[in-house]
Give the backbone structure.
Amino acid sequence: MCDRKEQLIGFVYGELDPSETQAFEHHLVSCADCRGELEDLRVTRGQIAAWTPPEPDLDFQIVRGPVPVQPAARRFRIAPAWGLAAAAILVMAIGAAIANLEIRIGSEGLVVRTGWSAPAAVDTALVSAGGAQPIDWKQQSQQLDQRVRQLEQALAANRAGTVRNASASSMTDDEVLQRMRDMLGQSEMRQQRLLASRLTDVSRDFDLKRRTDLMAVDQALVRLQNTSGAEVRQWRDLAQRSVRAAGVMSTSLQK
Amino acid sequence: MPSTDEELVARSMGGDLDSFNQLVVRWERPIYALAYRVIGREEDARDVTQETFLRAFRALKGFKGQAKFSSWLYRITLNLCRDWIRREKRTPVAQAPEGVDIIELAGETTPTESVEALVARHELGRAVGKAMSMLPDEQRTAIILKEYHGLTFQEIADLLDCPLSTVKTRLYQGLTVLRKQLRDAGVEGGFDR
C-alpha cells in the first residue's frame, strides 16, 4: 500500500508544483496502487458532479427600512406644566409621608413640623391642657376663604399674562425659557399652598374629633366622680349610724 | 466591464446599497448551493442564504479585506450551517424529488444530451447526495468546497481553520468513502474528470 496520499490528492486536483507533478508522474509509472486509486478518484469525481442543487427562487435584496424613532428623543421632551405640577404634588406627598409632616394652626399661627419624635409632646400638651385656647374656626375659615380668593385672582392674572406673552412674537428663547420656569415655579407654589390647605383641613378635623373625645372623657370622669361622692356619703352615713347604734347599746348595757 | 467584488464592497461600505445588491445577485446562487449541499434542505438553505447576506451587510464595516469577499461569505454561510445542524441535532439530509418529471427534465437537456442520459444523471445525483449526507461533516464540507466551489487547498484550510495536510487528508478519505458507498449502492461509471 503506497503512502503518498497527499501527493496523490494534490495530483488529482492539479495543485502540485511542476517539479512535484513530474516526480509523481514518474512514481505512477512504477506504482500500480497509485494508478488504481487515481483512476477510482477520477471516476468518483465524475459522479460527484451529477449532484446539483435545485433551482431556487432567490432574488434577495437588501432594502432600507424606515428609520426607527429613537426613544431617547422622547425621553428629553419637556413635559407639560400640568404634568410637572402633578409630579411635584406626588413628590411632596411622598416626602410628607416620609418626613411625618405635621401642619397645625394654633395660637402661634400656622405651624409646619417634620420628624418622628416631635408629635408625642404636642399631643400630651393638648391633652393635659384641657383648657387650651379654643381655635376660632370662623375666623380661620374666613382667612382661608380670603386666601383662596387671592390665589384665584393670582391664577387669573397669571393666565392673562401667559396669553399675552404667548402672543408676543418678540420674546427670545431665553425669555420664553425663563417665563416657563417662572410659570412652573408659580404652579409649584400654588400646588404647595393647596397641599398645605388640604393638610390643614385634615389637621383641623382631627383636632375637632380629638376635642370632642376629650369632652366626652371629661364628662365621664365627672359622672364617675359624682357617683363616687354619693357612695362615700352613703358609707359615711352608714358608719355614723353604726357608731350611734353602738353608743346606744353601750348605754343600755351600763344601765 | 462589470465591477470586481472589491470595488463593489468598497462602494457598499460607502453606503451604496445598489452595489451591495449587485454582490447579492452575483453570489446568492453559489451561497445557496453551498448551504443546500451542507444541510440538504431547500427551505432551510434559502433561509441560511438570506441570513448570510443580512449578516454580511450588517458586518460590512468590519470586513477588512484580508480574505476575498467570497471567502468571507462562505465562512458566514458555513457558520450558519453549523448552527443549523447543531440546533436541529440531526444529520443533513439530501432531499430529492420522489418522482422525476420527464417533461421538466427534457427542458434541461443540452443539445448533446438525451432525455435518458438526463434521467440517469438525476438518479446519479440523488445517489451522490445520499452518500454525501452520510459523510462526516468535515469531510463533506471539504469535498463541497473543493469540488463545487473550486477553492484551493489553502483557501479551504483558511476557511476551516485547519492545517493544509488536514484538508488533503479529509478530501482523500471523504472521496474514498464516497466511492465505496456509491459502489455499494450499485452506481457504476459516471463522468470522467
Observations:
- Helices of chain A lie at 5-12, 18-30, 32-48, 71-75, 81-99, 119-129, 137-167, 173-254.
- Residues 72-78, 117-132, 162-169 of chain A have pLDDT under 50 and may be disordered.
